[in-house]
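Bug report (template v2)

What were you trying to do?
Predict the complex of my protein with biotinyl-5-AMP.

What happened?
Run completed; filing so the output is reviewed.

Input:
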Amino acid sequence: MLDDKILNYFKKHEEGYISGEELSRELGITRAAVWKHIENLREEGYSIEAFPHLGYKIISIPDRLTEVELKWQLKTDIIAGKIYSYKETDSTNNTAYNLAIHGEKEGSIVIAESQTAGRGRMGRKWVSPKSKGAYFSVILRPDILPKEVSGITLLSALSVAKTIREMADLAAFIKWPNDVLINSQKVCGILTEMNAETDKINFVIIGIGININTKKELLPKGATSIMEEYGAEISRVDIVRGIFKNLDKYYKLFGSGHIGRIIKEYKEFSNFLGTRVQVAYHNTKIEGYAVDVDKDGALILRMDSGLNERVLAGDVTMLR
Ligand code: BT5
């Protein structure tokens, strides 16, 4: 599409002004046609100013989760090399899985404005109100053993919590293993899925659902959004780009063997350590004090017997 071509041309010349003449020459269209396309882009929410003698410059971009907006001035090495953006899909994890099966590159993203069958863990649902949150999946091809994959869930939760703190200055905490909470209410959930053989991972899909400008009444009980806690709408594009940057940083650290540093930061962002918790897994519930997260991402519980129990997956409820 010509509008996209114009945007990409601006993207390649981010710092500068582009004259109507240059655009008409590069795209092989008349000056009048350039003007018409600039008007189209303005209607779509781009703020484009025309400076006499200098040309056009993009001042701000709309809050749409498309490849052009999300990659605007984004400097990452692995994450978001390619972004597949949809108005609607059943689940971005399913779409990403299908792409990965067919050889899609590491770092590619599938993002959607809404999901008709957003999934949580263990067959649960993820409520995905249209154009309010961000629902996306990241394809990764880590060179690790299947049992090490929980480190990727932890670094993803850390990336989200850190982004919320950086961009909205809200006290976001992590609840083991995959929830991000603000004021004890869930603002983000992460679903990690993988395709693996006994000792080799083919690919991992990290699904991230985050409530950004979502009203509480559209969410399940116990959930919140950044807007509800922050008190004003916030740019979804900025939040998602912030998550991409942090994911890129922590995934590279993970890849270079620094899981210890990731776990240390993860623990600093956790609010369950030192509290009494109940963990539900495989139809069993156990209770104890959450004392640590080990290097494999397992939760260490101190039982009343004084013995430690190591839990690899489950749902944590904090008991006060
Ligand atoms: C999760 O599961 O928290 C993982 C959610 C992952 C969602 C993303 S969206 C992009 C990608 N594509 C997908 O299809 N999924 C991923 P779990 O820990 O099982 O929590 C699920 C529970 O969270 C539900 O049973 C509800 O109680 C609650 N929940 C559902 N929707 C929510 C929302 N929008 N905000 C907060 N809590 C929600």
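What did the reviewer find?
The longest strand covers residues 185-197. Residues 91-93, 115, 118-122, 124-127, 135-137, 178, 186, 189-191, 207-209, 211, 219-220, 223 surround biotinyl-5-AMP (CB under 6 Å).
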